[in-house]
Every structure is written in C-alpha cells, then in structure tokens.
Design goal:
With 133 residues, this protein is an all-alpha fold. Helices cover 63% and strands 0% of the residues.
Amino acid sequence: MHEAMKMQPSENFDQHKNAAYRVAAVFMELLERQFPVESPNKPLQLKTAQDYAQNLALHVNYLNRMVKEVTGRPTSAHIAERIISEAKALLQHTDWNIADIAYALGFEYPSYFNNYFKRMTGTNPSSLRTMEV
C-alpha cells in the first residue's frame, strides 16, 4: 500500500506542460510575492530580470527565453507592468508622498521614478494622484 501511495502524484502537485511553463509560473509567483509594498522602509528586493534569475538560480537569458515562450512578453515587461500597477495603487490609496513611493518601489531617486512613470503611463504621478478614481 505504501509503495502505491508513493507512486501516485500528490493532489497538490502543480503539473506543468514543460520546463518553460514551470519556470514562467515560478517567476510569476515570485513577482507577485514582492507585492503589495507595505512600507516605504521596506523597498522591493527584486527589481530586474537579473535579480529574479539569481533568486531562481537560473541564467537571466534562460529565464527571459522561458517567460517569453510561455507569455509572449519579456520578463522585464512583466516586472514593469507590476511596478506601475503597484505605483498606481499606492498613489491612489495611500497618503505617502511621491518620494516615499519611489523609494519603496526601488528607485534610487524620485526623479527616476517620475520619468519612468511618465514613460510607461503617459502621465505624471502627481497628476494621477489628483485624478478621480
């Protein structure tokens, strides 16, 4: 009986089609675990594809290739989308100043965050904050 139980796959075992699907799923789960940002004093630890690859013990090119194969988008696009999504949530639902949000999202300077946000969304962080939800 014990041998039969060992051969049966676990009910909680998440089966993936191939390695690419598994790598993409693990990357997406790791990305989501970075959020929500709860305090400006605890900034994001993983900000680049290289950071995620090191955390997953993979080469960055392999991670990018697997994620793009499964999702059709590069790793950096997923990271950028999630950072912008979190930035919008923080701007609209907290009273943190923009500099605190920038530091919490891993930007070295608030001006870098402002330029990044404007490039990705087409609007300034301060103007998004004043918009009606």
